[in-house]
Design a protein that fits this description.
It is a single chain. The protein is globular, with a radius of gyration of 19 Å. Helix 5 packs across helix 12 and helix 7 packs across helix 9. It has three domains: 92 residues; 83 residues, Winged helix-like DNA-binding domain superfamily/Winged helix DNA-binding domain (Arc Repressor Mutant, subunit A, Orthogonal Bundle); 61 residues, Arc Repressor Mutant, subunit A (Orthogonal Bundle). It is an alpha+beta fold. The longest helix is centred in the N-terminal third of the chain and has 16 residues. It has a three-stranded antiparallel beta sheet with strand order 1-3-2.
């Protein structure tokens, strides 16, 4: 677990503004939520102030010290965040899915090519890199384009819920499948669709790995102002060496200044 680091006041205030942690700028509507995601580039949904990085929940609360209560069902802020998440999925303008390392994130469209460069699979790679269960789930979905979880289990022949969930996680991590709708009646279920249908243009862009790491680092630093050791890696699901490659690329072009091992600051904010 990363030790909590005390950041300079000016950096916390910078993050308050860029991550919508001020009461006056808190997120209330789905349109505002989408603008928030567009600004930060990528963000978690229901993390709170105990986790690094931007969060839709914290933006809904509009305060930097927001902590998720134990009884989230009765908490109006967490409930509102959940409903906003459902509406964002339904509108289909923002990418949402469980990426590698269990990172469930929103991605602004401009960031999709960079995350896809790191973790996406091309169609010709699927047979070699996807499990048999994941391929079994993908087969009927490619025919129908959108299916509910129960229908996918039936058509894929995977009756075991845990095995099916693992297959869906694998397909999301490869940026092939995304949730396209959330249904609560007569029972709760997701509708699943193909990422290439919703985000065809962005997923078709080819970006090399070095560029992807640099641009993910740029996106995070633009909102964070300062990044400390391990922070970018935890937020974006990168390894520490990968995060370092991205940040050092920003230093070489003058966008960032290295203050110490693993610590980088936006050049325009000054060194101290």
């Amino acid at each position: 677990m990363m030790r909590r680091t005390i950041l300079p006041d000016e950096i916390e205030e910078f993050r308050d503004s860029s991550w919508f942690r001020e009461g006056a700028g808190r997120v209330e509507t789905v349109q505002h939520a989408e603008r928030f995601i567009e600004q930060v580039g990528f963000t978690a949904c229901l993390t709170d102030s105990r986790k690094p990085g931007p969060s839709l929940y914290v933006a809904v609360c509009g305060r930097r010290d927001a902590v998720m209560p134990r009884n989230v069902q009765k908490d109006p802020e967490s409930s509102h965040t959940w409903l906003l998440k459902d509406e964002i999925i339904r509108r289909g303008r923002i990418y949402y899915g469980k990426l590698p390392h269990g990172k469930t994130m929103f991605l602004a469209p401009r960031m999709i090519p960079y995350f896809n460069a790191l973790w996406g699979l091309r169609r010709r790679e699927e047979k070699a890199k996807l499990s048999k269960a994941a391929r079994a789930v993908l087969r009927p979905l490619r025919k129908e384009w959108e299916m509910a979880s129960a229908d996918l289990r039936a058509e894929s022949g995977i009756s075991d819920r845990k095995k099916f969930s693992l297959a869906m996680d694998e397909l999301q991590a490869a940026m092939i499948v995304v949730p396209s709708e959330v249904i609560y009646q007569p029972k709760f279920t997701y509708l699943w669709g193909l990422a290439e249908e919703r985000f065809a243009e962005r997923l078709s862009l080819r970006v090399d790995r070095k560029t992807a790491l640099r641009e993910i680092a740029r996106c995070f630093l633009a909102g964070a102002g300062l990044t400390i050791p391990g922070e970018l890696a935890r937020v974006a699901g990168l390894s520490r060496p990968e995060a370092g490659l991205g940040n050092r690329a920003l230093v070489r072009e003058g966008y960032a200044v290295m203050l110490g091992p693993g610590t980088y600051r936006l050049s325009r904010l000054g060194r101290d």
